[in-house]
Write a structure and sequence with these properties.
about 0% strand, mainly alpha, about 85% helix, about 150 residues
Length: about 150
């Protein structure tokens, strides 16, 4: 069974969202270690060797830095809106809109992460190239499904 990078990115997004919502030190700790967790997952998927590992770690660090600098405030605002709606009596339409908002943010993160991985020639091993290119196809399929929702 092969998980897509998109689904893993959404899982990472969910961890970040929970960290903001709960303010729990355990979740905050997990988010702060997300770069390491993402590297471990990716390494188990494509088995980085030598310089590839350093490049992957650098790219993951850049992704997390971008995410913290540009996305977390947006998540906080989104959670504030969710909190207000949940304090009242949210309708099914409100919940569907909240789901769409979360999905948009997950797709934004995925669009930022996947192309760099796919296009970086230093990360590609001939044995892994086919699987990495398959990730881009899977991401496109997920985006097509999301646009229909």
């Amino acid at each position: 069974m092969r998980d897509t990078l998109f689904r893993r990115t959404l899982a990472l997004f969910a961890i970040a969202l929970m960290a903001l919502a709960a303010g729990c030190s355990t979740i905050r700790f997990s988010y702060n270690q997300g770069d390491t967790l993402l590297y471990w997952w990716m390494n188990s998927y494509v088995d980085f060797e030598g310089q590839q590992a350093d490049i992957a770690k650098r790219d993951i660090n850049d992704l997390f830095q971008w995410h913290r600098q540009t996305q977390l405030r947006d998540y906080a605002a989104l959670l504030g809106n969710f909190k207000q709606k949940l304090a009242g009596n949210p309708s099914q339409a409100d919940l569907l809109q909240a789901y769409r908002e979360i999905r948009v943010r997950g797709e934004r993160l995925s669009q930022r992460a996947v192309p760099e991985l796919i296009e970086d020639p230093d990360l590609k091993d001939p044995e892994d190239a086919e699987e990495l290119e398959g990730l881009q196809d899977l991401q496109a399929q997920e985006e097509a499904k999301a646009s229909k929702a």
